[in-house]
Amino acid sequence: MSNRPALPPEIARRRTFAIISHPDAGKTTLTEKFLLFGGAIQMAGQVRAKGEARRTRSDFMKLEQDRGISVSASAMSFEYRDFRYNLVDTPGHSDFSEDTYRTLTAVDAAIMVIDGAKGVESQTRKLFEVCRLRDLPILTFCNKMDRESRDTFEIIDEIQENLAIDVAPASWPIGMGREFLGCYDMLHDRLELMDRADRNKVAESIKISGLDDPKLAEHVPADMLEKLREEVEMARELLPAFDRQSFLEGHLTPIWFGSAINSFGVKELMDGIGEFGPEPEVFKTAERDVAPEEKKVSGFVFKVQANMDPKHRDRVAFVRLVSGHFTRGQKLFHVRSKKPMAVSNPVLFLAADRELAEEAWGGDIIGIPNHGQLRIGDALTEGESLRFTGIPSFAPELLQSVRATDPMKGKHLEKALMQFAEEGAAKVFKPAIGSGFIVGVVGALQFDVLASRIELEYGIPVRFETSQFTSARWVQGDKAAVEKLLNANKQHISYDHDGDVVFLTRLQWDIDRVERDYEGVTLSATKEMM
Ligand code: G4P
């Protein structure tokens, strides 16, 4: 990374990241404060209407409101100081891990939010593991320090042991719970004091010269000051110091302590991403590595979302720009169809409002409204045939058959299902024998979401029913071998929305049998989306 040439300033100032956390740790609140400081919203509380609906403004579905979960990932851009931040929201619920996984392929860093009283929770751990697969740099925010929290060393130890990553304190909390005063900024030798009276105010920041500075005593009571000095001394002895290279390689995470609801620690965290990076990264394709500073535009679709705006029946493809300088109206090459595509109305996601993007740079996330041409994994370039790798499609873990309660609507149902399949919201398999469809998902809640969306967006009431199958595997291999398998196992064969052959079964034994009996055929639980 350090050997790379300097990036054009516009690209070097991009910071594209996601927030990972266990539900309730404070992701929504932190997002809200980011947007508040980034000037994307005027008042806190706009992102999440207090009490009645605990959601970010980017959520739009009734079902999400009812369940209080965020089903769909979305992107938000904002400016703060010298940087342009692109925050890609990840759905927090474990049922949507596939979507989350793909979202994490489009960012350069992640912020891990943990609750100071609860430490590392199950969902945090899962998401962390996904980040680790890509060695994503991780910044940690220990939230809710205004409440009774665990001992600071204990929290840090838990992260180190549970996640096997070095933790370097970027700040050190002074008191906790009702006594929480603020933090000592260990990287900049500053005192940050929390204002309890105004939850939206940025903390008062006092420059000091070391922990022996007499100024400290004016702000921190003697007993707390003594404890702070002791703890910081111990921390410096026992814990690793912040090392940028190690952070960028994903081996070390800096930790800030704060209280999102009180806007405390948020600014320091934003400055941290700004100051330490990472800058937009190099991405891999099947052909070669693509660097952000390359003159030509390239990018890939990591998410497709339909009907974001109920008034416009469009789909938006979320594209991570990997390189170049894109301008509105530019003709790009759609690699999968080998056709040019004029991108005349790209959108940037400034909090809730969609705004036309006049230009965008490597690192940015743009939305491209389209009628279904753009699918997850698709590459856009200025003519080169590139295929970005590492955007997987997972075999669903749950299968159900679906039918319209009104049989006359069968044809429309097919259209709706295909759309959701292309969006990546579910896998849809058309069995080779018989009629109807089998829908596959990763988490059970997705069936409810689908049923609700099919009814809401297409006016088709549907029923999901138990299917005779429980596993799906993509069939790969040489043509003759696959043909032989198809002919002898018709009752197990289906086709996904791309027309690829999928083997359905309820027995692991069947999968083993095929792999044993059909040389040259493999059954795969993932399929690269390219
Ligand atoms: P999530 O998106 O990660 O699920 O968490 P969210 O921000 O919705 O926060 C979960 C709860 O924690 C909310 O309380 C929120 O107000 C509270 N919270 C967030 N940050 C802090 C903090 O720094 N200190 C304290 N004490 N609480 C915090 P809630 O009661 O569930 O909702 P609400 O009624 O407050 O909106």
TrEMBL record:
<dbReference type="GO" id="GO:0016149">
    <property type="term" value="F:translation release factor activity, codon specific"/>
</dbReference>
<feature type="binding site">
    <location>
        <begin position="143"/>
        <end position="146"/>
    </location>
    <ligand>
        <name>GTP</name>
    </ligand>
</feature>
<dbReference type="InterPro" id="IPR009000">
    <property type="entry name" value="Transl_B-barrel_sf"/>
</dbReference>
<dbReference type="InterPro" id="IPR031157">
    <property type="entry name" value="G_TR_CS"/>
</dbReference>
<feature type="binding site">
    <location>
        <begin position="89"/>
        <end position="93"/>
    </location>
    <ligand>
        <name>GTP</name>
    </ligand>
</feature>
<dbReference type="Pfam" id="PF16658">
    <property type="entry name" value="RF3_C"/>
</dbReference>
<keyword id="KW-0648">Protein biosynthesis</keyword>
<dbReference type="InterPro" id="IPR032090">
    <property type="entry name" value="RF3_C"/>
</dbReference>
<feature type="domain" description="Tr-type G">
    <location>
        <begin position="12"/>
        <end position="281"/>
    </location>
</feature>
<dbReference type="InterPro" id="IPR035647">
    <property type="entry name" value="EFG_III/V"/>
</dbReference>
<dbReference type="InterPro" id="IPR004548">
    <property type="entry name" value="PrfC"/>
</dbReference>
<dbReference type="Pfam" id="PF00009">
    <property type="entry name" value="GTP_EFTU"/>
</dbReference>
<dbReference type="InterPro" id="IPR005225">
    <property type="entry name" value="Small_GTP-bd"/>
</dbReference>
<dbReference type="InterPro" id="IPR038467">
    <property type="entry name" value="RF3_dom_3_sf"/>
</dbReference>
<comment type="function">
    <text>Increases the formation of ribosomal termination complexes and stimulates activities of RF-1 and RF-2. It binds guanine nucleotides and has strong preference for UGA stop codons. It may interact directly with the ribosome. The stimulation of RF-1 and RF-2 is significantly reduced by GTP and GDP, but not by GMP.</text>
</comment>
<keyword id="KW-0547">Nucleotide-binding</keyword>
<keyword id="KW-0963">Cytoplasm</keyword>
<dbReference type="Pfam" id="PF22042">
    <property type="entry name" value="EF-G_D2"/>
</dbReference>
<dbReference type="GO" id="GO:0016150">
    <property type="term" value="F:translation release factor activity, codon nonspecific"/>
</dbReference>
<feature type="binding site">
    <location>
        <begin position="21"/>
        <end position="28"/>
    </location>
    <ligand>
        <name>GTP</name>
    </ligand>
</feature>
<protein>
    <recommendedName>
        <fullName>Peptide chain release factor 3</fullName>
    </recommendedName>
</protein>
<dbReference type="InterPro" id="IPR027417">
    <property type="entry name" value="P-loop_NTPase"/>
</dbReference>
<keyword id="KW-0342">GTP-binding</keyword>
<dbReference type="GO" id="GO:0097216">
    <property type="term" value="F:guanosine tetraphosphate binding"/>
</dbReference>
<dbReference type="GO" id="GO:0005829">
    <property type="term" value="C:cytosol"/>
</dbReference>
<dbReference type="InterPro" id="IPR053905">
    <property type="entry name" value="EF-G-like_DII"/>
</dbReference>
<comment type="similarity">
    <text>Belongs to the TRAFAC class translation factor GTPase superfamily. Classic translation factor GTPase family. PrfC subfamily.</text>
</comment>
<dbReference type="GO" id="GO:0005525">
    <property type="term" value="F:GTP binding"/>
</dbReference>
<dbReference type="GO" id="GO:0006449">
    <property type="term" value="P:regulation of translational termination"/>
</dbReference>
<dbReference type="InterPro" id="IPR000795">
    <property type="entry name" value="T_Tr_GTP-bd_dom"/>
</dbReference>
<dbReference type="GO" id="GO:0003924">
    <property type="term" value="F:GTPase activity"/>
</dbReference>
<dbReference type="InterPro" id="IPR041732">
    <property type="entry name" value="RF3_GTP-bd"/>
</dbReference>
